[in-house]
Amino acid sequence: MADDLIFYTNPMSRGRIVRWMLEEVGKPYKTEILEFGTTMKSPDYKVFNPMGKVPTIIHKGTVVTEAAAICAYLADVFPEAGLAPPHGDPRRGPYYRWMFFAAGPVEAALSNTALGFKVPDERRGMVGYGSVEDVVSALEYAVTQSEYIAGDRFSAADVYVGAQIGWGMMFGTLEKRPAFEAYWQRIASRPAALRAREIDDALVAAQKKAEG
């Protein structure tokens, strides 16, 4: 039932990553749209997410926040979707490695790039990602070792890593290297990815119409 899985989001947020993941999972879910600065910061919602941010999911009473954590959680609780290598499978290593590399160093490096902040060379040891150049080179390595992040099969790691690459290239915070463009093309046309974008784009359009 849809009420077993509730998705709190805004179509102009990182919730778009989780929407894609939910469409890949293919289970019924209920969407609750929250607005920045108002319902997202309400006391009722902050019981679930003290940061007052989206995305958040509640699955049969279990609350999960943070897009990468939600992707990993959904892959594990819905194993029939085949979105995570089984425990004991050697592909589990790169699956975890690159998903959380994207959630940590990549997210931080690209955010700082968007803000115009450059870590001084002598201070690189103080930040988890070291330098943007090192992060981008490592990310390029990740997408060139096999067809997908964890080998020859698409997984939740591709949802998260792919979203970071797609957004980075779209907003100019990530260089459009051939390896990134080829990888993004492999995954961005998946039926679930297209459905997710269609849903969220329609919500954005409706929101703009209401405001106009």
How widely separated are the two ends? 35 Å
Q: Helix share of residues?
A: 40-55%
Low-confidence stretches: none
| Beta-strand percent range | 5-15%
The CATH level-2 architecture of the largest domain is identified as Up-down Bundle
Structural class: alpha+beta
CATH topology of the largest domain: Glutathione S-transferase Yfyf (Class Pi), Chain A, domain 2
Average pLDDT works out at: 95
CATH hierarchy class name of the largest domain? Mainly Alpha
Kindly give the count of domains: 2
Global geometry: globular
Keywords, separated by commas or semicolons:
212 residues; alpha+beta; Glutathione S-transferase Yfyf (Class Pi), Chain A, domain 2; 2 domains; 4 strands
